[in-house]
Amino acid sequence: MHRESLTTKPEYDVEAILGGDHSAFEHMVRVESPRLFRAIDRIVQDDSEAASLLQETFLQAWKNRGAFRRESLFSTWLFAIAINQSKKALRHLSRSAPLTEEDMDRMQPGFTMGMWAQPVEEWRTEQPAEREDLRRLVHEGIDRLPADARTVVMLRDIEELSTSETASVLGISPGAVRVRLHRARQTLRAILAPHLRIREDLG
Amino acid sequence: MKILHRLVSRITGDLSCEEVNSFLAAYVDWELDEETKVRFERHISRCVNCRRYLEQYRLSVQLAHEGGIRPIPEELVSSTIAFLREQM
Predict the structure, then answer these.
(1) Which residues from A are below 8 Å from B58, CB to CB?
(2) What gap in Å lies between CA A150 and CA A95, rounded to an integer?
(3) Is B56 within 8 Å of A192 when comparing Cβ atoms?
(4) What residues in chain A have per-residue pLDDT under 70?
(5) Chain B closest-CA separation from residue A106 CA (Å)
(6) CB burial of residue A198 (10 Å; 0-12, 13-18, 19+)
């Protein structure tokens, strides 16, 4: 599943924005709003809060455009602002995710001396008709993840930022992105497992 | 038996199941170096547990991707731009 970053070709004129061109900025707002809104909404889980954070993100970007260094993509820089704003807001919203880090620990596979502690159960083939239900199940799972795990899944697996872009947005190393993402994906797999495993009912 | 298996793996340079698991994210995202990829795939071809887990992991990632692009509220962009025009 090779992911090309969607952010490699900016569809707007970054130099004009940095030079203070209002219409170039507005055009960028139109282009970037959908995925920034989805990203923010994933974190705060409240549409109206997300809408006001989106406004605040763009306003901060406009005011601080002089601080944008051309080392990263403009969109990466925007994501970093959006995520910082959302995390700050989340603290005030005092919303606790139903899954804790300890829950996630329990949902990771176990190994003894390098080998599986338990055999991996076979899953049945999913029926085309249930795809939508499985999708919903995974997305409910994403919404239950702790904020850090939810954020990395949203950036990598939903918005398709590359590992290095995600690392840059979150201010962590690419290795740390991979570890965090892997842990979150394994949790989602564990959420799916009871629905797809073949039960050997001998009774 | 497990100890013997582990010893054989060490000698032949095969990856353990736990090592394969730790490379899963990089493998699925095409970020493994060629040499590790070859060792990873050699292990997967022989190990039913790791093969199953890889498939299940992949399905989880696909489902996360598929349902993620939700439509945004219609008036969101226009209200954002109206807000920014006042502030800029």
Answers:
(1) 1
(2) 14
(3) yes
(4) 1-10, 94-97, 199-203
(5) 16
(6) exposed
Q: Do B76 and A178 touch (CB under 8 A)?
A: no
Q: Which amino acid is at A13?
A: D
Query: pLDDT, tens digit, for every residue of A14-27?
Result: 999 999 999 999 99
Each residue's pLDDT, cut to its tens digit, for chain B (88 residues) gives 556 666 666 666 789 999 999 999 999 999 999 999 999 999 999 999 999 999 999 999 999 999 887 778 879 999 999 999 998 8
A82 token code pair: 């959006």
Q: How far apart are CA A158 and CA A181, in angstroms?
A: 12
Min Cα separation B38/chain A (Å) = 17
The number of C-beta contacts closer than 8 angstroms across A and B is: 149
Residue A166 in tokens = 């995600």
Which structure tokens are listed for A19?
A: 């030079």
Give SS3 for A112. Answer: strand
Residue B58, helix vs strand vs coil: helix
User: 3-class SS at A115?
Assistant: strand
Number of H-type helices and E-type strands within chain A: 9, 2
pTM here is 0.79
- Return the ∠ at Cα A145 (arms to A144 and A150), rounded to 5°: 120
Map tokens 């991979």 to a residue.
A178
The ipTM value here is 0.84
Q: Where are the alpha helices (DSSP H) in A95-154?
A: 101-106, 131-144, 147-153
